[in-house]
Amino acid sequence: MKLGTTPHAVPPRRTPRLMAATVIATFFGAGFVPVAPGTAGAAAAIPLCLLLDRLGPASYFLALVAVVGIGIWAADVYDEAWQTHDAQRIVVDEAAGYLLTLAFVPRSIFNLVLGFALFRLFDVWKPWPVSYADRHVHGGLGAMLDDLLAAGYAAALLLIIERTGLVALVSGYFAARF
Question: Model-level pTM?
Answer without folding.
Answer: 0.88
